[in-house]
Here is the input.
Amino acid sequence: MAESEQECLDTVVKSGSVLAPWLGVNCTLLLKQDSLACVYPEATAAGSPPPLPIFAVKLEDVVGLKILQDSPFSSSPSVCRAELCTYQKVKRFISSSYYRKFSTEILEFSDAKDFETNYKTAKEWRESIQLQCRKNSRNLFVFSPEQIDRLEPMQLLVIINPFSGRKNGQKLFQNIARPMFDLAGAVIVQEVITERQGHAKEFVETFDLTSITGIVLASGDGIVYEVINGLMARPDWETAIKTPIGLIPTGSGNALVSSLLYEADEEKAVIENAVFQIINGGIQTHDIASVSTGSSHSYMGVLIHWALTGSVDVESEKLRILGGELRTIVGGLISIIMKRGYQGQLSYLPIDEESSVAATERDTSSGEAARPTTSISVSDPIPDNWKTIEGNFVMFIGLMLSHMSDSIMGHSDIKIGSGEHRIVYAFDDVTRAQLLTGLVGSPNTAKYDTFHEIRTRAFRLNPISPGFITVDGELVDYGPIQVQVHPGMMRLYSRIKKCNQSLD
Ligand SMILES: Nc1ncnc2c1ncn2[C@@H]1O[C@H](COP(=O)(O)OP(=O)(O)OP(=O)(O)O)[C@@H](O)[C@H]1O
Here is the structure.
């Protein structure tokens, strides 16, 4: 680290006196650019050696300062007690992996003789800590000046699917996520419980987005699909699709948030970790892809299933009672035993020829900006520079990220917002044992030459045998389907540090 950078991090943003009640001593609370420490007061005197902290935390691990208005254990009725809540990484005893653990440090604000003034001081500290956390996240994760300046508290629209996963999304949100948002100072402007399929899409199509800074979804990937399509259906779609989206995994298919947590080096399928990705307001971009069938056009951001996994997605709906991923695993096992083949054709433009696939835009007569779509429609001839493969497909998955579900990883090297669709497929020479490895881990293309993979930004799938195609977990019209990636169009709340990201 450069010396000037270190000096900057060492600069004290705010300092003040506070009582560490368990020691019974007055100490100094020091807020620096990336840390918060409580030190003995003599340690901050000029010329003294660097202060030995009573405690020190990295701001990136801070959830917030919880002010306890009634403080039964405080030494005097004028004292305002607060808890500094952190969510820090802890190394596991046996393995080299980490998990996060909540911890608190108790502080008492007691300089003034009356509770109101001490309470006001505690509130000012809470705001300074929140502001510094947000500033850091803007500096670290968002490289756009106007985003860095905009430090208003998070104002969130929350959409909860009560039907997703084990049907306990509402409970998980209220018991786990909401207290963390409150602690972090995020304001929940409105909470919407979806009442039916399509409700989330309809809702975001007309909602006043100027009243919020982001949307949080407590659901599976199906609601992500609905929200992307709702935002893209708006007349102001160009700005609407840039609304940051936060993801809380309460569904049975949580591929997008699982990929995000994996990339952020966090444990997956842990609701707290997903909320932690959201609360400091860091943002990164992700791609969306146009999906055109003969009769419809939509946008996706996660994955496409056809053949075996398409059937699992649809037919395992009957197993919803099993909840979570068990439903997919049981459905997958049944389909592997049956091992059906699906005749079809896949045509695609290899990713290294991407320059020739600039998306054409639809004409609109309404005066709205033209929405991106596929460069060719399903009825157009396949361009000469595309490749075509044909056969009896047993497996076909088109991935825009690393994970297919909470615990099933498709490919560790597909990053969120990488601008590609990775198609993994197998013909009927694949064995059941090999398919099983693809169900419990990733389809190992290096180990088994029966698994194939393609990197592309534009493809057409033309299924011939009857079956199902699902896009982000939602069933689409069966028949030829044309797909094209539009890189970096949407934004996700995330702590993944990526340099030089353009958010324009
Ligand atoms: N109140 C509701 N009743 C029934 N279905 C609903 C309701 N609200 C939303 N839905 C629908 O539930 C479906 C699944 O949503 P979601 O992806 O959040 O959960 P999931 O458990 O991961 O499901 P899947 O694995 O099918 O994607 C979506 O098609 C959505 O439109």
In short: The domain at 154-284 is CATH 3.40.50.10330 (Rossmann fold).
